[in-house]
Amino acid sequence: MSFTSLTFWAFFAVIFIAYWLIRERQWQNGLLLLASYVFYGWLTPWYAILLGASSLTDFYLARRMRQYNDRAKAYLGLSLILNLGVLAFFKYYDFFNTQVAESLTGLGLPVDWMFIRVFLPAGLSFYTLKKLAYMLDVSRGLLEPSDDLVSFGLFVSFFPQIVAGPIDRYQKLMPQIQQKRAWQPDFFYSAWPLLVTGFFKKIVIADTIKSFVDRIFALHDPSLVLVMAGALGFTLEILADFSAYTDLSRGIAQLLGFSTSENFNRPYLALTPTEFWNRWHITLSTWLRDYIFFPVHRALLRRSKPLPAWLNQSIPPLVTMFISGIWHGAGLTFVVWGIYYGVLIAGYQLAGLRGSWKPVGRFKIFFAWLIMFAFISFGWLIFRAPSLSWLFDVLLHSEWSHGRTDWIVAVTLLSMTVAYAMPLLIKHLLDEYIPRGFVHSFYYAGLTLGIVIFTSSVTSDFIYFQF
Amino acid sequence: MRAFKQYLLSLLILTGLVSGFVFLRFAEGYPFPVGPQFDPHIRQKYEELLDREQPQILVLGDSVIDTNVDANLMASQLGKPVSAISEPGAGSALLYLVLKNNIATAESKPDILIIVFRDTVLTSPGFRVHGSFFEVMDEYGGDEDDFALQLAIRDRMSPFEKLAEAYFPPYWGRWDLRALIVSRLINLPERVLFRCSQECYEEAMQSVFGNQNFETDQLNETINSAENFLYTDENLDFEAQIDQSFLPEIIRISRENNIKLVLVRTKILRFSNESPEPAALTNYMSDLRAYAQSQDIILIDFAHDDRLTADLYKDIHHLNLDGKPVFTQMLIEAIESVPIP
After folding, report:
1. What is the predicted pLDDT for the residue at A459?
2. Does the structure's ipTM exceed the value 0.85?
3. Among A340, A341, A377, which residue's Cα sits nearest to residue A232?
């Protein structure tokens, strides 16, 4: 069920009414848990069984970890193996299977038996990170393991978040799950701007740009000018698409009385790669920081034979971003995209340009922004490229343009990108310079009419579902 | 609370303004007609073709006809005049309109009409009926084709959508408003920079995004995802679909015009060892076969024919130059035994 489908809103209306009529916290949680499993297993019930089994396993392993301190590491190890094993199997089976099948075919061996396709259950990457954070925090003594299976199950499967985050931590969500919740009009007043913005970004911006961008990245020999326009279009598309999902997710959670994390804070205004990752997919970035970056950094500092300072600075971002890359998908483009950001972060840091760096003077700020924005767009080009060989072919062998028609199409996509980015830019200016009031309300009314005008009976899935 | 009231007030004002604009610029009455309407003019391109070529056998379908069927080879081997009509992207609604308003109205009607289709196309009336596909439908549909609009478009709309179309001006006028935004805002730079008209823009799009320019894998993926519509539970349910599809009308019109109808299911590469044909599609095909038999229609199924190997395809639907004669030969062999009425 997609948040932009009528089916979802019919489903949500039923849950919403029943949820607020119940009033009793335990029953409310029970209903939300049931709703989350129905939502998650809507198309493939088998996914809900996997979710249930893995939640149950971690619930008991965490409790065992606390009960038997001497065997805590073994339980943690088992949880890591199970979680990462399941994630790796579903995420990379097809990729490696194809590679192995191609090699065997080359050797003349039969490969028919290998063609069993394994589909990645939507949201597996997201809820696995939620559970891993919980298990690691319990093992470090930062958390008491949950003794309430329903609440824990709801924390893992909470339907507004399960498919594409935000990856909220146990510490943020569980206190809300365990507190009494009664309907307050403020829930609605906080939710509606998020819902309007989310629908607008998805229906008007992301889906419109997508149709154009997809075609450019499907060409076998696009000119550089087309690819540049495509990369800029995708830069807007992925922000609009993913932040739309987060807005809708947060709005829906608000309507149920939950406050969930922001995932985006004007990422394209970043001046450094570190700042970009502090603003982009924030809940994933903080997860990677806390459970990959810091531990790697600490391990390097604790080495009996210390490494040179530049290596101590470079290895943690490289490792972290490499893992971020493979988390995003099975494919060499994701690996290269991750390493690209690792190198960028390390490079900026070695040059003394840390996350909070900001030059003095408007011209220098603009220049620093322009360079970073170019890096970001190039990063999205790597990310969106259909394959690494396609990307190298384009970058190394393509002509600037195949003629006037390429320029016409590129200029059209660029003007589309600028036109559809305008509402986001206006929102930024309003938030920055105009006090809350009628102008803001008028802006949301404009977005609502935009949704009506751009509504189509067919809405595509959110990009981040596939991760 | 205050902000929400301001929002509602703003929405009311904006809706009023946009509605006024829609009335002034696009509307001809109220309530609005639900769904798009056909222009009264009907293009007679294929009627003229039939009267000119006077074929005994006519092959009709989408772009697959162009890549898979060699009409000249068929004509020379069958010893009968053969013509082919290939309408790229045609769904059953367009095939119906071409049959009703061009083939059935021609002076020289064919004796045999071969409709080449894939999987559930013939009973999925809502397949390829929006946007640019509607523009092509409009060329072959006229004032008296409300039935086609009903089946292809209005029956697919929810009651809520129908209500919004009829009574809410911004929703009814959304296609025109979007076109206006695109032409005034988005196409402005290329008009100014390249002095490029709408026609020149469309030519540029066609030149850059012609099928020949796409990566095969990417093209296949795009085709596959666009075709998912044909494999929804709803469209795979033959019994539920048949009475609300164009197929009974296609059969009726053919019969009334003494045209022997032959349905040919092509082979596509959507399904393979990796992801075999779903059981629902197999059931659908056996229902279609039984239906064709009951209607005295010939149904030829090439979907699992081993002669069409993967190397004969240029993408998952279309054959390459080596594949064209193979398919044509298969079609000839299958048609040879069909008696001409």
Report:
1. 44
2. no
3. A377
